[in-house]
């Protein structure tokens, strides 16, 4: 990849090889990273990734918004849904 990229992972922990990301940050291949998901949650406060000066870390709170909780509460008995980016509409993908 192009040197100096920025990586954002708010999807799933484990999608990114965290040890490789630290190496890429140290070498400058990755300029910055922003993460709110990790392979092991919560991450250790001593983690090289958490402590890295070019990494922004936030707690995994995507499902903790009012909108997400309302959607979950209203649809907890449904089978499988795709959640829109706004968390305001749930679209069933299996009948």
From TrEMBL:
Record GO terms (molecular function): NAD binding; phosphoglycerate dehydrogenase activity
Keyword Oxidoreductase included in the entry's annotation: yes
Keyword Oxidoreductase listed: yes
InterPro entries: D-isomer_DH_CS (IPR029753), D-isomer_DH_NAD-bd (IPR006140), NAD(P)-bd_dom_sf (IPR036291)
Keywords (A to Z) from UniProt: Oxidoreductase
UniProt cross-references to PROSITE patterns, sorted A to Z: D_2_HYDROXYACID_DH_3
Domain D-isomer specific 2-hydroxyacid dehydrogenase NAD-binding: 1-62
Pfam families (UniProt xref): 2-Hacid_dh_C (PF02826)
UniProt xrefs under Gene3D superfamilies: NAD(P)-binding Rossmann-like Domain
Domain of life: Eukaryota
Protein name as catalogued: D-isomer specific 2-hydroxyacid dehydrogenase NAD-binding domain-containing protein
Organism name: Linum tenue
Taxonomy of the source species: Eukaryota, Viridiplantae, Streptophyta, Embryophyta, Tracheophyta
